[in-house]
Amino acid sequence: MPLETYEFDDDSYTATANAGVNVPAVLAVLHGHPVHRQHIGTTGLIITGRAPDGQIISVGLLEIPGRDDTYRVAQVHVLPPAQAAAFEHRMGGE
Asked: What CATH number does the domain containing 59 carry?
């Protein structure tokens, strides 16, 4: 399991609120299991997983310059039902 740190700034809180979720749900996804991880370029990362309320959430992160393995939450997206079903299938669920 990667040893990463996740941070929030004002934009992170705004993105979280705009997605209609709360910070504890985002943290549950970031520290949860199972998750799907996708690296984007050299500084981006998307982590998708299940929140405690059952929603499938995708969290976009950017590595903070000069701070290896420390990421700032940049985007938060709740997957619509069809994408959530595809995630479940990929992860070996229903």
From this structure: 3.10.450
Domain that holds residue 48: 5-92
> What's the rounded Cα separation, in Å, for the pair 41 and 32?
23
The answer to whether 49 and 29 have CB atoms below 8 angstroms apart is yes
The reported pTM is 0.91
Regions of the chain with pLDDT less than 50: 1
> Is omega for the bond preceding 65 within 30 degrees of 0, making it cis?
no
20: left (phi over 0), alpha (psi -120 to 50) or beta: left
Answer yes or no: are the C-beta atoms of 61 and 45 closer than 8 Å: yes
